[in-house]
Amino acid sequence: MITNIAIMDPGKISVTVPLIIIDLYEDGFHPLVEILVFGKSFLVVLDTGASKTAFDHALLLQIKGDAEIIISKHLSTGLGTNSMVSSTLTIHDLQIEGFVLEKLEIAVLDLSTINNAYRQLGHPEVLGVLGGDILMKYNAVIDYGARTLKLSI
Predict the structure, then answer these.
(1) Which has the closest alpha carbon to 31: 44, 42, 46?
(2) How do residues 83-97 score in pLDDT, each as one tens digit?
(3) Residue 5: what pLDDT?
(4) 150 pLDDT exceeds 60?
(5) Phi, psi (degrees; rounded to nearest 5) at 149
(6) 152 CB contacts (<8 Å, ≥6 apart)?
(7) 126: which DSSP letter?
């Protein structure tokens, strides 16, 4: 459901979308955002500490077995390691509440530990993380009080 798409001035568009805040009990909170990709709806973690948007490799193959995943020559850093093999995939149809992000290159990683932890806490599965690449490019404003994410171009 589109909550608020506005034209700020000619040539500029913004959208405000709801954040789903999940309680990790002793470990704080994670904000989740609903996205639409490959014609289906998924949740992703809004991760200001992630430099790049990333999807889980196994889930991605379940959803789109013919995805053209390209193995990277570089190892990923973060998530507690600097030796994780990574791949990339170009997405042509990612949407956040009707806000279309065209031709987006994402990282493809093993993010199973996130979903394992979420399952143990009774939280929904996530496709991956929405990272700093999107947050910076689309001038993200995160409002925890209002539980919203605003993107604009």
Answers:
(1) 46
(2) 566 799 999 989 999
(3) 53
(4) yes
(5) -125, 125
(6) 8, 12, 13, 14, 15, 138, 139
(7) -
Question: Of how many residues is the chain composed?
Answer: 153
Phi, psi of 103 (to 5 degrees): 45, 70
Q: For every residue of the chain, which 3-state class applies, written as one string?
A: CCCCEEEEECCEEEEEEECEEEECHHHCEEEEEEEEECCEEEEEEECCCCCCCEEEHHHHHHHCCCCCCEEEEEEEEECCEEEEEEEEEEECCEEECCEEECCEEEEEECCHHHHHHHHHCCCCCCCEEECHHHHHHCCCEEECCCCEEEEEC
CATH architecture of 5-152: Beta Barrel (2.40)
Instruction: Give residue-wise pLDDT tens across range 120-142.
Output: 999 999 999 999 999 999 999 99
